[in-house]
Amino acid sequence: MLTDELRNTLIQTAIEARKWAYAPYSNYAVGAALLTTSGRVYDGVNVENAAYPTGMCAERVAMYKAVSEGEQRFSAIAVVTSNGGTPCGACRQALSEFGLDVQVLIADEQGRLVQETSLRELLPGAFGPEDLPRK
Ligand code: THU
User: Fold this and answer.
1) Quick check: helix, strand or coil at residue 62?
2) What angle do CA 75, 114, 66 make, to 5 degrees?
3) Which end of the chain offers a freer environment for a tag, N or C, measured as fewer CB atoms within 10 Å?
4) Residues 130, 103: contact at Cβ < 8 Å?
5) Which parts of the chain have pLDDT scores under 50?
């Protein structure tokens, strides 16, 4: 379980990061802050593209930043949007690669916690590495 202090830190970090969102097409800015089990926090924003499908969600940007720096164990992620929208299916799947025990804080731009859940709850029946035959 997260302390209130960590909860606030993650939400505030996601709010701060969100100003860097590049979302000229949807006008829907998303900020994320991902906490690793080692205690580091990686932020991310959505980065859209004129070739629409090339854009990337904030949660995956945060996760890819973390993985590219050697972090693969996550304990929580905060996601901030104008209206407290939830992580999309692709982000749920991407995050699940390294485990489903990730707390998910969904907040609005005022920092109000709209929903607190877990990746396990958000992605029932997840397909994961253990579903592939081992070589
Ligand atoms: N978006 C995210 O960054 N995360 C989500 O989980 C949902 C959607 C972004 C993608 C796109 O830039 C914009 O929000 C509208 O879909």
Assistant:
1) helix
2) 30
3) C
4) no
5) none
pLDDT single digits (tens) 63-74: 999 999 999 999
Q: Report the alpha-carbon distance of residue 69 to residue 87 in Å, rounded.
A: 23
Residue 17's contacts (CB-CB under 8 Å, 6 or more residues apart) are 31, 32, 33, 43, 44, 45, 58
* Inter-axis angle of helices 58-67 and 89-96, nearest 10: 20
46-61: pLDDT as tens digits = 999 999 999 999 999 9
Dist. CA 91 → ligand 1 center (Å): 9
| Closest CA relative to residue 116, chosen from 9, 11, 5, 41 | 11
CA-nearest residue, atom 1 of ligand 1: 57
Assigned token pair, 38: 């080692």
State pTM to two decimals.
0.97
